[in-house]
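Annotated sample (chain length 300).
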Amino acid sequence: MRGDQCATLAPLVALAWRFRPVARRTALVAAALLAPSWASAADPTKQECVSANDSAQDLRRAGRLREARERLALCLSASCPGPVREDCAQRLDEVDRAMPSVVFEAKDAARNDLSAVRVTIDGQPLTEKLEGAAVAVDPGPHRFVFEAEGLPKTEKALVLHEGEKGRRERIVLAAAQPAPPRATQPATGGGSPPVLAIAAGGVGVVGLAVGIGVGLAGTSKHSTLNGECNTANGTCPPSAANDLDSFHTLRAVSTVGYVVGALGIVGGGVLFFAMPASKESPASTGLYVGPASCGLAGTF
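Output written by the structure step:
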């Protein structure tokens, strides 16, 4: 007995095996009586029955439960010895209980149910249609591919465990959504803020501050010299020599500060207006000079 004959007989025996031992033996006898016409020269020999039972055990240990089930269905043939059939029926029941199953729920982009979906497992055909029934598979990691007419293929990796029954997995087969258009950036009149202009202006402000500060010190020193020197003939006593040298030094430093300040501010202004800043972040600056401080303020 082979092929479809074994497939027809196996469920009957597997069902009866769930009950008492008497029912198991009765099921085996009934199977043999119900299929006398199946016995023929094509039925497996005793050696083939034993070999099928042995190979099924090896496949079971390797986790190849679907192949083990096929081998066990073969040794349930009426031509096999009774003890072999009983052993195969028991092992078939164990394999059925260990074999995991999964229920695939396929939908399209509008969440409509799909049934005409072809499924492959690890590159091998599994089913041509999804009808809501659980599909038995071997335990372990698998890669499933789902295909439906007019829709792109969808893949899903799953790890199924022994004894895991009726695991539900939702699969959505939908065309890829177009990427949303990227927001366009407004045109800019320039690049980054004019750093050189800001730096030059900063140097100018510092130079101007130095010139003012040193100039005030020189004015104070000049007042001191007026009290020590003869302003009529422009002569000073030897004791005023140090104050006189300090006055000349302060005056020179103040002059240099004013020159650097003027050049920095003028150069910074020219660079600033020659290099317009970005329209997204306009720069604004301002110069302030106080009684005891000065600086450059603004946003960039």
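Annotation: The mean pLDDT is 76.
Annotation: The first helix runs from residue 4 to 16.
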